[in-house]
Design goal:
By secondary structure, the protein is mainly alpha-helical. The structure holds zinc ion.
Length: 682
């Protein structure tokens, strides 16, 4: 092995490419580890240069160097974590596992540094005398809050205890995730006779045959489980017994005894989180988490979710009665029947056939004449493909985004297709985060998981994929439009219970008549999508929302319940705790199971959404209220877009988001538009 020349490591200097696009063509696997090492070393030296100072803390000698620190680490980490999601290999898996504890310890080393905390706290104590502009003032406030919540104010013994809690929790949550993956694989349902799969399409049946073959079960069929309780096949499988087998398998994950059982882990994780919260001065983990969200308290979350729960449960019961009427008295509707009969009612009542829409959603047209076109009409930005610039994978395309006066906005990277080396789902991330302190431009990416068509065939998107595209592009615009001074506030660096808001708003343009007419054109005949399709979609928009809202709220409330236990509470039985928590909010209808049960609730026990699963509907309140604002003010127009851009998207995380919202809307958000959208009017 040859000693590496660090001078040739592309992570060690800023990129010289347009918009500081990382030099992907020069980056090789062996560059990452030394760059991580060098980056951490450099970062610690920079922090030590701040804390070793003998002079009194000032904004200039403390906050500015703190914000400028860690550039090398930032460069290698963004490129690496993009790769470990979108271009996974054995190499990324190994390095990720190796780096996770090192990076966690590095972050603890900085956030628990007493000398650094003392300087930040000193500035915070004198905040009114410092004469800072609003964004600089907010920077001190945010650092002070984050460091305090991370435990910087604790004494040495408490800090040692905190580090131990953090480490134990990181091990336990990783184990939860591993168990869940193993049990999900083990519980895949084996089908012997293809007749039992009646109702599935040809493609779906061949996928189950292929899945069986991969496990050495030639000639059989394997239904692999997905993460939520429900399964996409349940709406079409005609065999009631097979539906029940899939539902039972899904719901038993992590609670069957044996080595993949997650019940003890649930109890231990929630107990440790409660103890850690007490160490940090909070009554429970939910109080600790929400203190640094726009919600602020578990009571605020409980009040919002609690208001929706009884209405959602009532609507679900009405839907249930409809479904039962269809079945008659042959049998009682069970959870595994819900999707199947719902689909029948949907077709009978609304005649919606989403499959027939695909030919009108050709991917290239959706992108250029839909997603991009909407941004041009609303915000005046234009898009030019830059085939001269290389991204991290041949499928990832690079576009330059400019304002209508020709001034640069940033680069947008689109990576549309699914592949074995990409994780599931759809997401946005930043490769270069805008800030004026370091004169950084902006580069953002969108990843989707659209199946690649056979060579020469067009990519026809499903209704949901088009919706996801508009959604993720909303995150991209949030990143692209941010114009902030400090790196900490770049783009989508906002509270978790606020971050989905801009992306949800962007979904509104998908069916906006002027936009839809521009992109939804039959890929062969060139004919526009029939108005009847759109009318049916609109007419059925609140259909089955009682069920959907109930299963979501059940999970959100369950997540809150687990994290409202205190360090003095003892919970002995997971299933009992779960049943009581759901009964207490009236969401214990057996036909409408929670979207995730505790033992397979990855969001809350391994996914970083602990005490935060409420975020999705919390952001949707702002989203629905904003869509109303656009509509009241004439809908699609540059004036409306410019206002939304300058007052909300452009400020990134640089001010209190609810204050920004108030400025934009002229008042606080109200919940009624959300209730109306979900058919939950009281
Ligand atoms: Zn999103």
């Amino acid at each position: 092995m040859v000693e590496q020349n660090l001078e040739q490591n592309p992570f060690l200097a800023p990129s010289t490419l347009p918009y500081a696009l990382p030099p992907f063509a020069d980056i090789r696997d062996e560059h990452y580890r030394p760059a991580f090492e060098k980056g951490i070393e450099e970062h610690l030296a920079e922090i030590s240069n701040i804390t070793r100072r003998r002079d009194a803390p000032t904004f200039e000698n403390t906050m500015l160097p703190l914000e400028k620190s860690g550039q090398t680490l930032e460069r290698v980490a963004t490129v690496f974590f993009n790769k470990s999601s979108a271009d996974i290999s054995d190499f990324t898996n190994e390095l990720e596992e190796e780096m996770a504890p090192i990076l966690a310890a590095h972050s603890d080393a900085i956030r628990l540094d007493s000398a650094l905390y003392w300087r930040i706290k000193t500035l915070h104590d004198q905040l009114d005398q410092l004469g800072l502009d609003a964004e600089s003032r907010y920077l001190v406030e945010r650092y002070y809050t984050e460091f305090t919540l991370a435990g910087a104010a604790l004494d040495d013994d408490q800090k040692a205890a905190l580090r131990e809690y953090n480490q134990k929790l990181s091990t336990l949550t990783t184990r939860f995730e591993k168990n869940l993956l193993a049990d999900t694989n083990d519980l895949a349902v084996v089908i012997d006779d293809v007749a039992e799969l009646d109702g599935l399409g040809e493609g779906e049946i061949s996928a189950t045959a292929e899945a069986a073959r991969e496990r050495g079960l030639d000639g059989k069929y394997l239904v692999t489980l997905v993460l939520p309780t429900g399964h996409p096949y349940l709406d079409s499988l005609t065999n009631r017994d097979v539906r029940k087998r899939i539902m039972d398998a899904s719901r038993s994950r992590g609670s069957r005894g044996g080595e993949n059982d997650n019940r003890e882990l649930v109890l231990e994780i929630t107990r440790l989180r409660a103890e850690r919260a007490r160490l940090l001065g909070f009554e429970n983990h939910a109080a600790y988490v929400t203190a640094d969200e726009t919600a602020k308290t578990p009571a605020a979350v409980a009040s919002m979710l609690g208001r929706l729960a009884p209405i959602a449960a009532r609507n679900a019961r009405a839907e249930q009665a409809d479904l039962q009427a269809r079945i008659g008295d042959e049998f009682t509707l069970e959870s595994w029947d819900w999707a199947y009969y719902t689909e029948k009612v949907r077709q009978a009542k609304y005649d919606v056939d989403t499959a027939a829409m695909r030919p009108y959603f050709e991917a290239e047209r959706v992108m250029r004449d839909g997603v991009f076109f909407a941004a041009t009409r609303v915000y005046g930005v234009t898009f030019t493909e830059r085939t001269d610039l290389v991204a991290y994978h041949p499928d990832a395309r690079v576009f330059e985004v400019k304002n209508d006066d020709g001034s640069p906005v940033g680069l947008y990277v689109l990576d549309l297709y699914t592949r074995d080396s990409k994780r599931g789902g759809a997401w946005m991330n930043s490769l270069v985060s805008q800030n004026s302190l370091l004169d950084h431009p902006v580069v953002v990416t969108n990843n989707l998981n659209v199946p690649k068509p056979a060579a020469g065939m067009p990519t026809l998107l499903s209704y949901d994929e088009v919706n996801t595209f508009f959604h993720e592009f909303g995150h991209a615009l949030h990143g692209l439009f941010a114009r902030v001074t400090y790196p900490k506030f770049a783009g989508t660096n906002v509270y978790r219970d606020f971050v989905e808001f801009p992306s949800q708003v962007n979904e509104m343009w998908m069916l906006w008549p002027e936009i839809l007419a521009n992109y939804a054109v039959h890929f062969e005949t060139g004919e526009p999508m029939p108005q009847a399709f759109v009318d049916k979609i609109r007419a059925s928009s609140a259909f089955n929302e009682g069920f959907k809202t109930s299963e979501y709220l059940a999970a959100a409330l369950l997540d809150q319940a687990w994290h409202r236990i205190t360090a003095d509470d003892t919970v002995a039985d997971v299933a009992e705790f779960e049943a009581e928590a759901l009964a207490a909010v009236g969401l214990d209808n057996p036909a409408v199971p929670t979207r995730y049960s505790s033992t397979y609730f990855a969001h809350t026990f391994s996914g970083g959404y602990d005490a935060g699963y409420y975020s999705y509907i919390w952001s949707e309140v702002l989203d629905a209220d904003t869509v109303d604002w656009f509509t009241e003010n004439g809908g699609l127009s540059r004036a409306n877009g410019d206002r939304f851009r300058s007052l909300l998207l452009g400020v990134g995380g640089s001010k209190d988001p609810l204050e920004a919202y108030r400025e934009f809307r002229g008042r606080d958000a109200v919940i009624e538009p959300l209730l109306k959208r979900r058919g939950l009017a009281e």
